[in-house]
Design a protein that fits this description.
19% helix; 5-stranded antiparallel sheet; alpha+beta; 108 residues
Amino acid sequence: VETTNGSYDAEIATYPSDVDVSNPRNTLQRGADDAAYVIEGGKWDSISWAQHQGLDAFDAFGHRKGFEVRLYSIMKSRLALVLCYTGVAGTSRSADVERFIASVRVRN
C-alpha cells in the first residue's frame, strides 16, 4: 500500500528444505544482512531483537536516499513474515507504522 507519506509492504517466504532453519535468530540475521543492501552504507542503523507471539523477530531501521526504511521480520519454522515500511524522515516510528507492525498475527 502506498500513501502520501510512505509505502507499506508485507511479504511471506518459505525457506526450502535444504536451508538450515534450526536456529531462527541466525536465519533472521542472514535475512537482515541480505536486505541491508538497500540501506545507505549497506548496514542497518539499528536492529532490535524481539519476541512476537513467542517467535523470534527483529526490528531494523535505516536510511536510503533521504527516506527511512523499517524492516520487521518474524520466523516460524520455515516461514518468514516480513513487513517493510519506507517513508519520509521521522515517520518510521509513527502511530500508523506501529499499528502496521502490531497488526501481524501468526496462526498455528
